[in-house]
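4.2 Preliminary Data

To establish feasibility before requesting continued support, the project team ran the inverse folding procedure on a target of 156 residues. The structure was first converted into the token representation described in Section 3, and no sequence information of any kind was made available to the design step. The complete token record follows.
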């Protein structure tokens, strides 16, 4: 197996472990954020791409359908090398296939993608405050990486 195939297989595994799949029903303030950001993307995938994304309220694993896994695998396989590298970086950073795909599809802008990927951290910052030289630099890293990927994908 070559490096490209290995990369695609590794990234396809994120379909089942995507952070968007794992909802938390409490506190209510975080549940509202998940509904606004994560559930919106799940609904978009159902409406626009006929994908039924399974979610759970907990940490027990969920398995997505073979149709869903194949959809994302095909997307990665059809990507040129630069786009695949952008997908790898953004999927690894966001722990999500859905968020980078939404950015790639121009469903969301970079700032929304950053917020969507960092939802739990942003909720904690709102409740407990920001750790200087940690939360702020992480935010800038997310914005830099997702912004660079969006530039690559604009040329697609």
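Position-by-position output of the design step:
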């Amino acid at each position: 197996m070559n490096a490209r195939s290995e990369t695609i297989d590794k990234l396809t595994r994120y379909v089942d472990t995507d952070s968007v799949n794992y909802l938390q029903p409490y506190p209510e303030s975080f549940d509202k954020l998940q509904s606004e950001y994560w559930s919106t993307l799940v609904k978009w995938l159902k409406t626009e791409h006929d994908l039924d994304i399974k979610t759970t309220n907990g940490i027990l694993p969920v398995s997505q359908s073979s149709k869903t896994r194949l959809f994302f695998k095909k997307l990665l396989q059809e990507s040129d090398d630069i786009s695949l590298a952008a997908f790898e970086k953004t999927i690894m950073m966001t722990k999500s296939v859905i968020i980078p795909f939404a950015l790639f599809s121009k469903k969301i802008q970079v700032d929304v993608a950053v917020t969507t990927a960092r939802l739990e951290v942003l909720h904690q910052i709102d409740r407990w405050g920001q750790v200087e030289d940690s939360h702020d630099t992480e935010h800038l890293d997310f914005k830099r990486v997702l912004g660079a990927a969006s530039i690559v994908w604009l040329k697609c």
